[in-house]
Amino acid sequence: MKLNVCVFLFLLLPALAFAQSDFDFSQRWLKQAIYNPAAAGSSFYTRMSIHGRQQWAGMDGAPSTGAVSFDAFLYKVNSGVGFTMMADKIGFTKTYNPRIMYAYHIPVSDESVLSFGVSGGVLVRHQDASGAIVNDLNDPQLYYGNVTEYTPDFDFGFEYQGKIRLGGAVRHIGIKPSENNLPYNSTNVWLYASARLNRINRISIE
Question: What is the rounded distance in angstroms from the CA atom of residue 39 to the CA atom of residue 167?
Fold first, then answer.
């Protein structure tokens, strides 16, 4: 019965995440530190990763997303620090999101840790649609010039590591819509869970 509960929890929580208009990657379980600042230093060693995603390959203006992340555990203060840089391009619009992260890890037992983390940075949105071909030049919902916007960006998250792993984060807290009708990353929530089934040939489900 315990095995069934753990697997169900793993399947249920990702379905509850209702994040929209955010940087999107597949295999998110390998990228917790990108979405959740509480995961900074959670591996208890220094790690660096590079991720990329290309959609609709071969089409002009096709969406492409990339990210670089670095985080490390500081043993003397039970903390994790890190840095992420995310970039997204679709059509005439480019978005950049550099952030620094800090997490504090609280030992709950010899085999479990509870972590809380925050991150801060800036969301840079740029659009140059001066060469766009449009049907209605008077459409008030579209901006056809060259514009760049800078918006402060903050995240908060938690993570529990033990026999199961639970985590969640609120991203882009207090973000405001674009003044020039550019696409923007709305405030959203990420939830995830995993279970390590050591009794079955040390299989890890994540």
Answer: 8
